[in-house]
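Marked as duplicate of an earlier ticket. Keeping the data here for the record.
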Amino acid sequence: MGESFLISLREGVEISLIVAILLTYLNRVGRRDAFAAVWVGVGVAALACFALAAVFLHLIGGFTGRAEMATEAIVSIAAAGMLTFMIFWMRRHSRTLRSSLQEGLGRAAAHSFAAMALFAGIAVLREGIETALLLVGAERETGDTSLGFLAGGVAGLAVACGIGVMVYHGSRRVDLRRFFSATAFLLILFAAGMVGKAAHELREFTGAEGGWASPVWDVTTPLFSTSWFADFLGGMFGWSPAPETVRVIAYVAYLVPVLALYFGDAVLQRRARPHATAPLVPSR
């Protein structure tokens, strides 16, 4: 549940931010009549993403044996790569997101209702597809098919919608820069768990034994091995009470350089722009 909540919250806030920017722009230029076009585009994009997630789950759910191992590894690697790209992309483009969206919607508004709906739909579709595929990857990585996983995703989207409403109404209490930094750290840990999971599945697929398969540690304490808390740590951060060597190596090999790149580059950017600390909110 925790992993689906985190992914839906993070991606949902990005979607809500896009919608808030578009609606704020239309409100500012006196085109509230065009709000419907934005919502039509967003609705169609949402339906497309739900359909994609359903198809993807149906396709990969039918694999068994070695095919399942290979599929699990591919899905985990793809999801980790997508998460990593999304985290770095958002940090790099957050400062120009508002202007690029407003310029694009302004050009669409000069044409037709359909053009505005199409622009809004495309703007949301990329984030929506990421959300759908990441949730599918999380479901395959954790093996959680319960209602709790679905509830976590719905709750994350609900909170994200609330944040989007606050942003649209100009609330300065929503510090999106801090939000994205904090969730980026958690998502990097989650992606590291996916990379470790992929290494585990590939080892089983190849049948490698010996040192690669030997556990680095073996925790038998119920709290960290069989409890709900252990399941939570496993789903969120890739924890395993008895991880094999290849899994730990893959986890660390991903985690250390990605954390160093993300937060090291963030420090350099702050030093280069010491006064650029305003929250990322649409200007009214």
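See parent ticket for discussion. The chain is about 80% helix and 0% strand.
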